[in-house]
Amino acid sequence: MKNRVFFFILFFIIAAASAVAEPAVFPEDAADWLSVLNSDFEETAGAIGQGYIEIDPEEYSSRADKIIYYPEGLSLWSSGGKIIQLRLDSAWGGFISGIRIGITDADLRLVMGEPWIEELGSLYYNLPWNEGPVRLRFVFTETGLIEIYLYGVR
């Protein structure tokens, strides 16, 4: 189970990176993406590219200092100059180890196993990774998976 979750995170980071259009530039070594949480926000956003929209964190009642959104479906949240959360939404068209936006929670469980917590249309996986704990949250509606969040727990 631990290996499956680790490899899912690895594919999540790679797929999120590959979903962003030019002029994005990504690390060649996939292991570099595993350290994106807690990385320098400006440096990471600069490495991905400037094709983003800034969002006011107050619109989401967020404690983040800054949120940026790439139209390909990737969002990055920062606090204190460090990335604290990544999000993929319904605009994202990629696959991660057999997981894509729109799949059912039953299909997700086949890939990920049983969640740590299940509540209100969300499945949570607790990950002991990257100065953890880190959580992976999958959000569902009756139409299937609509959002994926990767974030450090405060």
Determine the N-to-C terminus distance. Answer: 24 Å
Q: Briefly note the structural class of the backbone.
A: alpha+beta
- Outline: globular
Output the number of helix runs.
3
Features:
globular; 154 residues; alpha+beta; disordered N terminus; eight-stranded antiparallel sheet
Write a brief structural summary:
The protein is of the alpha+beta class. 22% of the residues lie in helices and 31% in strands.
General description of the model:
The protein has 154 residues and is of the alpha+beta class. The protein has one domain. The protein has helices spanning 2-19, 41-48, 105-112; strands at residues 53-55, 66-70, 74-79, 82-88, 117-119, 122-127, 134-141, 144-152. An eight-stranded antiparallel sheet has the order 1-2-3-4-8-7-6-5. A hairpin with a 2-residue loop joins strand 3 (74-79) and strand 4. The longest helix has 18 residues, at 2-19. The radius of gyration is 15 Å and the shape is globular. The relative contact order is 0.18.
Topology:
Layout: H1 2-19, H2 41-48, E1 53-55, E2 66-70, E3 74-79, E4 82-88, H3 105-112, E5 117-119, E6 122-127, E7 134-141, E8 144-152
Antiparallel strand pairs: 1-2, 2-3, 3-4, 4-8, 5-6, 6-7, 7-8
